[in-house]
Amino acid sequence: MDNHGRGDGPRPAGRGERPPDPLPYEGVWRFTAAAVDASVPQARHAVRDLLLRQGVPVSDDLVHGLLLIVSELVTNAVRHAALLSPVLAVEVAVGAEWVRVSVEDNHPYRPTALEADHGQTGGRGLLLVREVAREAGGVVDVEHTASGGKVIWVALPLKPAALS
Fold it and tell me: Which domains does the chain possess?
């Protein structure tokens, strides 16, 4: 019996058939900013506004986590890379089931999440980023760029992580 045309399950894509259209909120957006303190709130607001404008289905908790991550990553680039990298780039990539934010600079130093002394007022930014990502079921990584700099990225699922 031939099932073609009856909608009885998935069919292989034939020639000339297009893959499904992306969801309206899917895409990649990138902007650059000077490596100065004022860029921290500007980057945070730009990411928040982008998520709202594109209609990305994010929970309030996920938005708060993403904005904290953006603040920490941009702050790190401003504090530790500005001398060699006066400009930084922020990228937001949204897929059907995830959102990824990254901050790129041209400084070659690859940071690590160090345990900071409790008496210190700084030094825990990457630990915080890793913890927020872990709680959301996401991942964090640092990669070298072709230009000799680095990009730190965090990918989080749009749906909350299942509690075990």
Answer: 27-157 (3.30.565.10)
